[in-house]
Amino acid sequence: MGKNNAVPSQGITNIHARAACPQTAIRTQRDKELGILDTDLKSHLERHSLSHLPQAGILSKLLKAVSDDNLLEAYLRGSFSTGEADDYSDIDLFLVTKKDGIEDTFGKFLDHLQSTYNVLSICHDKLVKDYGGIGFMAVIKDSQGRLVQCDVYLVSEGQAPLQDIWNAPRIFSASSKYSVFCEENKAPYVEQPFAKLLANLESQELSQDEKNVHHLVQDIFIALFIENKHLNRGQFMRARNDDHHITQQMIEMAKIKLGYKTHHTPLYCGDSLLKDCSDSRDYRVEQMGKNISELGMELPSKGKIIKTISFLESYLHDFFPKLVKEFEVVFAELKEKVDPSYERPENTVVPFRQIAQPN
């Protein structure tokens, strides 16, 4: 990986040397050893021969869309930051806003995605490390039919992040006198009220259970998309980690249907919950439990991804029909990416099973 000693300064990608403070000095020295310094995005992509990737154009437009007076810094994370990105890589941005500016910047992020691409799924990212802000992950479809994952994490000035981010070039800076990693406020972080921001992703016409299921299905869809990426790369251990998360979310869906209240984690209470499903007199609940149990025992594979999508279709069809139409196209898009031989049904939802009503 090559070194970059220049600090370009141009347009919206204006970059200033990191502010002088002990924390920044330490991270800058480590980044120098890795060949990662403050740089404008265009130079970074060219230096690592990443400009040809379709995500590069999406990333450039996204940075431009959120770069305004409210944005203080932007850091690039993930494989694009280290120069190891490939056709399957996601876009991963870490944004620092002015105080109380997270909602405004997220609004610009969301508006750009929705006005430029077909947003298949977007939800609160609960898997990313907690830096004292909030993260989101989305899957979009571009004009060429490619599906791309876009992740963003937002923090605001006024308090030091809960954790550092290594190997992350700073690709936007509003001031040479500021770095979020030089914040002196080390007091315990007070969680910001993100309820209003999260509400932007929800329909007010849905019940609370429908909203919860809606979020879980969005979450599982993105996890399935990521699992397919890892299987394409031959990263089986990562696929198993994705699968672990998906299983937990399916159990959460069953808990919602059964009204199951417990302080235990999904996997801890999973066996007792699935037993309650098998003892149910409702054939739909019984089948739901059986499907989750069978999927939970199966190792990751493309075939299992298709089966999991079918489970989601069936679950919505049986218990939350109001959500069926919204996810119909979304599921078909992912099936086509996982299995090129899949033929999308025309203007109809095809449940994954047809169960005859018991006599």
Report on the architecture of this protein:
The chain is of the alpha+beta class and 359 residues long. It has 2 domains: 189 residues, Beta Polymerase, domain 2, CATH 3.30.460.10; 131 residues. Helix content is 47%, strand content 12%. It is built from 12 helices and 6 strands. Strands 3-4-5-2-1-6 form a 6-stranded mixed sheet, with helices on both faces. The radius of gyration is 22 Å and the shape is globular.
Helices and strands, with pairings:
Blueprint: H1 22-34, H2 41-47, H3 54-66, E1 71-76, H4 79-82, E2 91-97, H5 102-116, E3 118-124, E4 134-141, E5 147-156, E6 170-173, H6 195-199, H7 208-233, H8 236-258, H9 266-278, H10 283-297, H11 302-319, H12 324-338
Parallel strand pairs: 2-5
Antiparallel strand pairs: 1-2, 1-6, 3-4, 4-5
